[in-house]
Amino acid sequence: xxxxxxxxxxxxxxxxxxxxxxxxxxxxxxxxxxxxxxxxxxxxxxxxxxxxxxxxxxxxxxxxxxxxxxxxxxxxxxxxxxxxxxxxxxxxxxxxxxxxxxxxxxxxxxxxxxxxxxxxx
Length: 121
Fold this sequence. Notes:
Layout: H1 14-28, H2 32-42, H3 47-65, H4 67-75, H5 85-107, H6 109-119
């Protein structure tokens, strides 16, 4: 987990800028999944949201690692998607994952404020 740089009032010059720069350098090296895990731990996101985020991600990886499911999805024509149990399964996973992301980025008080302040244009 990456903790925010600790900055005292005496560090408001170059020291503060270096601390922020070093934190940003560490952060951009994270994978997207690691950056979400960092946010979950740093901001004490509810276990329900964390479970949904990582559970859905794990389920999606399970689909990708299943060769028969991948082949079915690769061969699936758009007009046949509604009748495919595999497609409907992946669709359900994606909806649950999106809901968990919405809860993380908009439902969490601190992260939601940051999202509205800096992430939504």
